[in-house]
Design goal:
- The complex is a heterodimer of chains A (about 160) and B (about 500).
- Chain A is mainly alpha-helical and about 160 residues long.
- Chain A has 2 domains: about 100 residues, no CATH class; about 60 residues, no CATH class.
- Chain A has 7 helices and no strands.
- Chain B has about 500 residues and is mainly α.
- In chain B, α3 packs parallel to α17 and α4 runs parallel beside α19.
- Helix content of chain B is about 75%, strand content about 0%.
- In chain B, β1 and β2 form a beta hairpin.
- Chain B is built from 25 helices and 2 strands.
- Chain B has one domain.
- A two-stranded antiparallel ribbon of chain B has the order 1-2.
- The chains are: A mainly alpha (about 160), B mainly alpha (about 500).
- At the A-B interface, α1, α2 and α7 of A face α9, α22 and α23 of B.
Chain lengths: ~160, ~500
């Protein structure tokens, strides 16, 4: 059985890769040229490889749709909008890390989860509760552990403000 | 001349290994390798992943011997499920399964397993002999390598694995490049500045490749097999040890097959990035062509069992695949990529200098491997039944055991919970990478070779008065660059030519 439609998970994975590269290059921009030259040389290759992979996702979907017989164009059109997942992962990631810089890890990750649920799941009371509740749980667990002097607290200590 | 030096070296090597604790450790690693190799879907990569984090306190030559013994023992163990259940433990025994299982259906599983074990031992020994003689021969060429050449070697090493990985080349290259960037996280050794660390001390040392490797292989593999529910049923049992012994002895009746298949294994293994599945199927093909009765292949022909096993073991472990790994720092296979990981973990830089600087260690490693192979043969001879039971182990038992080892290994490295978090993150990443045919092996290898590439690049740049022409003006460097172009363009050119000729013939 061939793969069905566009592999949305792969687009998210590629988005994660692209996000990592963007943030890495942004982070090292202030380094002297010796420290970032190879990263900058690698960046165009990463960009090209990522775009080839994104194109490959749609090409595979088109091929599979054609193999499954009929409705190939419609199938591709229907799933063509899936590309936003790739861009959304990058955007949401930047949003989350921006959030961490501005408002701290727990709230930032909560915002990220809210965006995620809004995009990939239905935004409802449960998802909102989870988006707020889980960071809160993390906060209480690790901050409390930190106060108690347990090593687990150190794990997230560096991420909090 | 080389033979005398090699014999002297091996004498010293065996001297290093003649320590009861070392021998016990080798026995333990062989047991682990055989069992893990026998469980379908695991194989030498998982066995190595589990063992590497615990070898930091050992003498490097002992640790290296353990790595190779584990790798080779898994090549012994993987034959058992191939013969008994027609489920190859690893890709290397897929060709063996064809005639091995047919022989089991004919009611002679012991004979097939005995023949396969002896073929594995003999193939492995021939591979080691060639490596011992050939590797020091390359030492004369060491002086030709400088920073520009080391840079290209690192890039070639990553590219080869990228090209031969399961998905498209773009996916392999992307995995490798991301791995290189991950290796750059932490304090830059050249400028002393931090890169992508968020100002935290946890990341100032960079992301250690061992927790990442544990995540990408052990956790990923467990997540994968947790979704499978395969139950293996044994159709025939091994009742007589005499039958196994007869199988062992039959190998000596086919000296031509032995030499031909072992040479195929060594040559294929020495070509970086190929691996033992290519070697075993190629030798099977040659065995069919060279046979006077090719119609018996596929129906339990003994030559169809021993040929892939000769080649498989001459290729992996101490055989052909080790030659580029040790001499050039380019892994001969994905399994060898993990041997490189282990060497880096021990603080040993593989490559041309290794042969000169650590010749004693190299011979000790080979001596340990020979001991390990003899143990592996003995284990296969005496303990086929328990290993066959291990093949049928349920996921409910296997997954927690591997998880415990993986996280223990991750934590034990620096007593850090952060490393365990890294294992989790890379486990999830690896699962999705594997699902969509990206290459976790390439990513880990790039994390190992990335710092080497970075340092060599900077040194070469300085040697060339801050000019990049130094990478193309030195003869060896230019040759390596052209080799890289051939590797990258080769598959496309081949496809184009193939397409052109197929159009002409239609």
């Amino acid at each position: 059985m061939g793969k069905r439609g566009v592999e949305k998970g792969e687009l998210v994975l590629l988005g994660v890769f692209a996000l990592f590269v963007i943030m890495f290059l942004w982070d090292i921009r202030t380094l002297p040229v010796e420290g970032k030259m190879l990263s900058y040389l690698a960046a165009p290759f990463i960009l090209v490889a990522t775009l080839l992979c994104v194109r490959g996702v749609f090409a595979a979907a088109k091929r599979n749709a054609a193999e499954n017989g009929g409705g190939a164009e419609a199938d591709v059109k229907e799933h063509g909008s899936a590309a936003w997942r790739f861009y959304l992962t990058i955007g949401a990631g930047l949003f989350m890390f921006g959030g961490i810089y501005l408002i701290g890890f727990y709230l930032g990750s909560g915002l990220m989860m809210l965006v995620w649920f809004a995009a990939f799941r239905k935004l409802n009371a449960g998802s909102i509760a989870l988006s707020i509740g889980l960071p809160l749980l993390l906060y209480l667990t690790f901050e409390k552990l930190l106060e108690m002097g347990l090593p687990a607290g150190q794990l997230f200590g560096w991420l909090g403000i | 001349m080389f033979i005398v030096e090699a014999l002297k070296g091996m004498g010293v090597g065996f001297g290093y290994m003649m320590d009861p604790v070392t021998i016990l450790l080798i026995m333990g690693s062989v047991v682990l390798g055989s069992f893990v190799g026998a469980v379908p879907g695991l194989g030498s990569k998982i066995a190595l992943t589990m063992i590497i984090p615990f070898t930091g306190h050992l003498a490097p030559y002992v640790a290296l011997a353990l790595y190779l013994s584990v790798s080779e023992a898994s090549s012994f163990g993987d034959t058992i499920p191939a013969v008994l259940f027609k489920v190859p433990g690893t890709e290397g025994s897929a060709a063996t399964a064809i005639d091995g299982y047919a022989m089991t259906q004919n009611g002679r599983p012991g004979f097939a397993l005995g023949a396969a074990s002896m073929a594995s031992l003999l193939g492995g020994m021939i591979g080691i002999c060639v490596s011992i003689l050939f590797i020091p021969f390359l030492a004369d060429y060491v002086l030709l390598f400088g920073p520009p050449e080391f840079f290209w070697m690192a890039i070639i090493g990553i590219s080869i694995i990228a090209v031969v990985s399961h998905g498209t080349m773009a996916k392999g290259i992307l995995s490798g490049l991301i791995g290189i960037l991950i290796s750059f996280i932490g304090t830059d050794v050249i400028t002393g500045k931090e890169r992508f660390t968020f100002g935290t001390m946890y990341l100032s040392d960079g992301i250690n490749f061992i927790p990442a490797m544990l995540g990408l292989f052990a956790v990923t593999e467990m997540l994968k097999i947790s979704r499978k529910t395969t139950k293996l049923e044994m159709i025939a049992t091994v009742n007589s040890r005499r039958e196994i012994w007869e199988g062992c002895m039959v190998c000596f009746k086919y000296p031509v097959n032995m030499i031909r298949s072992s040479l195929i294994g060594i040559i294929v293994g020495a070509i970086p990035g190929t691996g033992k599945s290519v070697a075993s199927f190629l030798s099977y093909l040659f065995a069919v062509r060279g046979s006077k009765h090719p119609e018996t292949f596929g129906k339990g022909e003994i030559e169809g069992i021993i040929a892939p096993e000769f080649a498989n073991n001459a290729c992996s472990g101490g055989g052909g695949a080790l030659i580029p790994t040790l001499t050039l720092g380019i892994p001969g296979s994905s399994g060898m990529a993990l041997i490189l990981v282990g060497m880096t973990f021990l603080g040993i830089r593989s490559g041309p200098a290794f042969i000169i600087q650590h010749a004693d260690m190299m011979y000790a490693m080979f001596a340990g491997l020979i001991i390990g192979m003899i143990f592996a043969f003995g284990l296969n001879f005496f303990c086929i039944k328990p290993i066959a039971k291990a093949v049928q182990v349920s996921n409910e038992t296997l997954i927690p055991v591997v998880f415990v080892f993986a996280f223990l290994g991750s934590f034990a490295l620096r007593n850090s919970l952060f490393d365990m978090l890294i294992t989790v993150i890379f486990g999830i990443l690896g699962y999705y990478m594997d699902k969509y045919d990206y290459s976790p092996v390439c990513m880990v290898l790039a994390m190992i070779l990335g710092p080497l590439a970075g340092e060599s690049f900077f040194q070469a740049w300085m040697i060339g008065n801050r000019s990049l022409t130094v990478f193309f003006t030195r003869p060896v460097s230019l040759g390596l660059f052209l080799f890289l172009i051939v590797i990258m363009a080769g598959p496309y050119v081949y496809q184009k030519i193939k397409g052109h000729y197929s159009r002409l013939t239609v």
